[in-house]
Amino acid sequence: MGPHHPSTHGVFRMDVVLEGETVVKLKPVFGYLHRNHEKIAEGTSYLGSMPYTDRLDYFCSLTNNWAYALAVEKLAGLQVPERAEYLRVITAELTRLQNHTCLIGFLVQDMGALGTPLMYAFREREKILDLFEELTGARMMCNYMRFGGCRCDAPSGWLERVKRVVAEYPRFLDEYEKLFTENEILMARTQGVGVLPGALAVNAGITGPMLRASGVNYDLRKVDRYGIYGRFSFRVPLGAHGDVYDRYMVRLLEMRESVKILEQALRDIPAGPVMDSKAKLRGFRPKPGEAYGRIEAPKGELGFYLISDGGPNPYRYRVRPPSFINLTVLEDMCVGQKVADVVIILGSVDIVLGEVDR
Questions:
Q1: Per-residue model confidence (pLDDT) at position 278
Q2: Which among 109, 214, 247, 309 is placed 20 to 30 Å from 196, CA to CA?
Q3: Are 275 and 84 in contact (CB under 8 A)?
Q4: 35: pLDDT confidence band, cut at 50, 70 and 90?
Q5: What DSSP state is assigned to residue 227?
Q6: How far apart, in whole angstroms, are the C-alpha atoms of residue 348 and residue 326?
Q7: Bridge partner residues of 145 (DSSP)
Q8: DSSP label at 7?
Q9: Contact 304/67 with Cβ under 8 angstroms?
Q10: Nearest to residue 315, comparing CAs of 293, 294, 295, 287?
């Protein structure tokens, strides 16, 4: 299976049929981390499920929180104050930065560059996790969003510290890009490898950087303009070939766009409350109805579909996880490739098994 075992990306197994070193069939086997997330949520209060969303894609708890909060806010008709909307954008783009940074570190590690690239990534990630800890009290399981806003306001000086981290990030990206982008080994191992055609990506429901690397211009921050994304100037990077190299480049370029969004949000964030005054945390019972809330999470479209029967718990709770859906085309990308490339192709999908299995 190449230089690394697939379980380095979580509790995941692939049954691979080979002809020599060429892959002729591949079947992903997952479900080892199934935790009954959706059924548990149907027996839990709406707010009680918020901490469970942290544990879906545990790299990206704040964007998980946002997608769930958005669905409940649509169901209950809640409005989010301006300052809370800015805090949501800031935490979401910081999440995208640390997710993409680590993905590249893991991907290069899968090619055999052990140690240094991933340590560079974790060094930068720690700076962002320090900010999350100061804001929410937790580094990874943040449980920060609430229906109608955010749990608490930013502490004194926090925004200034975010500005410093954001200001230093382009220098790190320059260093990262200089190290990898024109590296002879990286280009040889990724260009023309694991190609995903745009038409197949669309038909399979692929979203996020994987879809955009195949040349399809689709980003929910532009399409839905949820929250206040319509106010920010940024572009959507696209690939031309849909191979592993394009998936690497799209994520690198997306980080530079996230820095632009953060600079604008940090410049414009207003003072004010961070919770809708009409929001009820205790005795919360939305009127009967249904709603689907979705966001552009770092791995793609993350959505929550909820049905309310007027009770304290959701009558139906369903997650649309990007990791799971993006994984469904793994065989299409691997057939015809060498077995040593399979783990690299898997790494370029960017999955977290907590979200795949739920």
A1: 80
A2: 109
A3: yes
A4: confident
A5: T
A6: 10
A7: 150
A8: G
A9: yes
A10: 287
Question: In this structure, which amino acid lies at residue 24?
Answer: V
The token pair that represents 38 in the structure block: 């959706």
- pLDDT tens sequence across 68-78: 999 999 999 88
Residue 246's nearest CA partner among 323, 200, 343, 181 is 181
- If you average pLDDT over residues 23-39, what whole number do you get? 88
CB 94 within 8 A of CB 107: no
Question: Cβ contacts of residue 288 below 8 Å, gap of 6+?
Answer: 308, 309, 310
Exposure b/e, 251-270, CB count within 10 A at least 16 = b: bbbbbbbbbbbbebbbeebe
Pick from 272, 278, 270: nearest CA to 148: 278
Q: How far is CA 323 from CA 47, 67, 180, 217, 269, in A?
A: 24, 15, 25, 19, 32
Strand 13-19 to strand 22-29: parallel, antiparallel, or no bridges (unpaired)? antiparallel
State how far the Cα of 147 lies from the Cα of 357, in Å rounded to an integer: 26
Token pair listed for 87: 């805090």
Query: Cβ contacts of residue 133 below 8 Å, gap of 6+?
Result: 139
Query: Strand, helix or coil at 345?
Result: helix
CA-CA distance, 95 to 91, in Å (whole number)?
A: 6
Q: What is the DSSP letter of 310?
A: S
Asked if the model's pLDDT at residue 17 lies above 90, the reply is yes
Where residue 310 falls (left for φ over 0; alpha for ψ -120 to 50; beta otherwise) is: left
